[in-house]
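Dear support,

Our group has been running a series of protein-ligand predictions, and this particular one with copper (II) ion is the one our PI (initials K.S.) wants archived with full inputs and outputs. We had some confusion internally about which version of the output was final, so please treat the block below as the authoritative record. The input we submitted was:
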Amino acid sequence: MQKAFYQTTQIITCSIGLFILMLSLSYYTSNSHNIAYGQKAIQLSAKLVDGDFKWVDTATGKSNPTLMLKANTDQIINILNPTDTKHQLIIDQNGKQLATSGDVAPGSSGQVSFKPITAGAYGYHCPYHPTMMKGVIQVS
Ligand SMILES: [Cu+2]
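Confirmed final output from the archive:
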């Protein structure tokens, strides 16, 4: 009787220990995941809105959204182009091009990887529709 009680206590203690170990392991894994892949990817889709092409955030539906990024962190921006003309996403600061998706053909998709070094205001635009497809990037 006494022995059975002791064994049960041991099993429970062991299970709790294992649970805590798994919890800390999953925390560590999710943390290193953030370090390896940077921030959550942003997805922008070219879209005709009231006759003008815009960059639309597929998560929020916002046109030409202000993007909030962190300094010294890799950010991937995925580009979708379901329109019938080519687009390109260029990231710039003070007129200087810092990153580009290259041309994204109609019905195709692309990607820009951007790692801002310093905090501040940056911009993004499409060179083919510079007055319609443009927005601000705030880096903190
Ligand atoms: Cu465009």
